[in-house]
Write a structure and sequence with these properties.
about 190 residues; mainly alpha; 2 strands; elongated
C-alpha cells in the first residue's frame, strides 16, 4: 500500500472513530451525520466516473455492502435519509416529501430507547409509512462498506490507483501531512537500502 493510501485510510479511520465516539456519548443524530459522511466519502473515493452524487452513493452501496441485507430498505431510501438529515436535519426532505413518493422516510432509535417505544410515539404523532432503524444498523453498514473498500484497495492495484486519484483533493490535517511525509521517507529508505 502506498504512503498516500495509508494517509487517506487514516483520515477515514479518524472520521469513523469520531462517529463511534459520538454514538457512544449518545449523540445519535451527529453520529448518524458522521456515519453517512463516511459512507459518502468512501463512495466518492471509489467512484468510477459517475457524475451524480446519488448514483455514486447508491452504486457504492450496491457494490460494497457485502453483509447488508436489502430487505427492509433500499439504497434510494438510504440516499434520501442521508440527504434529508444532512440538508435539513430531518427524516423529511426533497425525496420523501413528494406526493406519491415510494421513498419512505427513515427514523432512528438507539439505546436506551426501544424500537416499540419510538414507533408508538411516532405513530401517536401521526407518522405512517416510515422505516424505523436502530442506529447500530447504519453503523454496521458504514463498517461493512468501509471494510470492503479497504480490502479492495489492498488487493487491487488498479482500484488503489483510482482511490488515490479520487483522493487527491482531500482535506488533510497537519498531522496527516506529516504522517504521509514520514511514510514517504520510510519508503525511500527501504528502496535505497
Amino acid at each position: 500500500m502506498k504512503p498516500r493510501t495509508l494517509t487517506v485510510m487514516t483520515m477515514l479511520l479518524d472520521l469513523k472513530a469520531a462517529a463511534f465516539s459520538l454514538l457512544e456519548d449518545k449523540h445519535k443524530n451527529p453520529a448518524l451525520l458522521n456515519m453517512y459522511s463516511l459512507i459518502d466519502i468512501c463512495a466518492s473515493l471509489s467512484n468510477r466516473g459517475k457524475k451524480q452524487n446519488r448514483d455514486i452513493f447508491e452504486s457504492f452501496l450496491k457494490d460494497f455492502a457485502v453483509l447488508t441485507k436489502w430487505d427492509r430498505y433500499t439504497t434510494q431510501e438510504l440516499w434520501a435519509a442521508r440527504s434529508s438529515l444532512l440538508h435539513s436535519y430531518s427524516p423529511f426532505g426533497h425525496h420523501t416529501n413528494k406526493e406519491n413518493s415510494t421513498v419512505r422516510p427513515i427514523f432512528y432509535y438507539s439505546w436506551p430507547e426501544s424500537k416499540d417505544e419510538v414507533q408508538s410515539v411516532l405513530e401517536d404523532k401521526g407518522y405512517s409509512n416510515f422505516i424505523l432503524l436502530d442506529v447500530e444498523e447504519i453503523k454496521w453498514l458504514a463498517l461493512d462498506v468501509f471494510n470492503a473498500m479497504h480490502l479492495k484497495v489492498e488487493e487491487d492495484e488498479e482500484f488503489e490507483a483510482l482511490f488515490l486519484e479520487n483522493s487527491k483533493n482531500m482535506l488533510p490535517s497537519l498531522h496527516h501531512l506529516r504522517f504521509e511525509d514520514e511514510l514517504n521517507l520510510i519508503q525511500r529508505l527501504v528502496e535505497n537500502a
